[in-house]
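Tokens for Flagellar hook-associated protein FlgL. Go.
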Amino acid sequence: MRISTQMMYQQNMRGITDSQSRWLAYGEQMSTGKRVNRPSDDPIAASQAVVLSQAQAQNSQYALARTFATQKVSLEENVLTQVTTAIQSAQEKIVYAGNGSLSDNDRASLATDLQGIRDQLLNLANTTDGNGRYIFAGYKTESPAFKDDGTYAGGSTPISQQVDSARNMQISHTGDSVFNKFTSNPKTDENGNAGETNLFKILDDAIKALNEPIEGEQAKADAFTAQIDQANRGLSNSLDNVLTVRADLGTKLNELEKLDALGDDRALGQTQQMSDLVDVDWNSVISSYTMQQAALQASYKAFTDMQGMSLFQLNK
């Protein structure tokens, strides 16, 4: 088989081109820090990287959702802390109202104090978040949860949020379940009746009773005592319910914190997996780049020397 000068030339040029391509490829890896810059570099790693990238995006989305959930749950907890304090203040007023030595004017003064607490509680029940959405209105966040008379006007479904791949969490409570409900074992009267469950109506009835003159009328005094006992019992039941809701919020905040830690660990693992798939091994790529550069220089020299062996050169 004859080996022509043209064939030798083409073979050497092909060797130089291939060597230069590999050298440039190593240079690209060094400039980008990525071993896989296009699917053709490593089809299997590239396809795995796409799947992993989607998992990373999903994990980031859940982290953002947990941030929103934590803010919402924390806001509700802060509001209910104030509600707890207000109910306890109302209880103190009611207990003091049972003092038989108080005059009608004294009770009227207590009624004014209770009215202020009642107004404060209504304002807390109609708290909005930073975007003007009512936090106790369920999904009807655009309008107040409670009317002025204490009637609930919000939605019946509490807001839920997907906070992890397998966890959908209720991140709010409707005002109806907070301010118009007792626990499963409320305090009752001698007939086993728990009485009015609406916190605002409990206070309204107590305020009305305190404003009613009873001096010198035993029948009215006895009725007043019964109403005060009922109000005290109702406030105690309402407080127990609010504390139960707060315990649920505390549990959710604790769970969100643990899910955040799990998400952080997952993100760290995914970052490491992605690095293993597509990032360069700097020791390896620098060594390969240097060796390929030397090989390319050798190819250039061989090509130059080959030109001097050409038959055309010999015939000169």
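The first strand starts at residue 160 and ends at 164.
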